[in-house]
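Good morning N.,

You mentioned wanting to compare the apo and holo forms, so I went ahead and generated the holo version with adenosine-3',5'-cyclic-monophosphate. This is what I fed in:
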Amino acid sequence: AIERTLSIIKPDAVAKNVIGKIYQRFEDAGLKIVAAKMVWLSEKEAAAFYAVHKERPFFNDLVRFMTSGPVMVQVLEGENAIAKNRELMGATDPKKAAPGTIRADFAESIDANAVHGSDGPDTARTEIAFFFPEMAIYSR
Ligand code: CMP
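and this is what came out, ligand included:
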């Protein structure tokens, strides 16, 4: 089915100047960028976005990292978009990410891991709504 998923290019990858290279991978895989913006998250915003991880030991580091610089946020749309994006990203820990995936090629560590992608249909809906009102998504 045609799905939408939320993708974030994290501060490490933005700083490395590889937004275009990552966008190319989305487009080459048949995913369309139907909404996009650059944002520098406040601590409050990052904590709210990652609220599901609030009790995890890495939560404070995660919020600190995600507020360390601007991020590029986009909605990807296409056949099987949620799983397809997760395949393109590779495993959360870049050391475990398959060769040729975004994290294998551009990420440094499990914290600075270049990209975020929604992990299922429910989170995709919530995460998209966190950043974009429906009228800001230009579905084609
Ligand atoms: P992301 O997909 O953005 O979702 C939560 C983030 O927490 C994850 O990517 C990682 O960058 C970060 N993180 C740090 N440590 C861990 C861990 N042990 N397990 C999962 N995520 C972690």
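The two ends are 15 Å apart (CA to CA).

Happy to go through it together on a call whenever suits you.

Best,
F.
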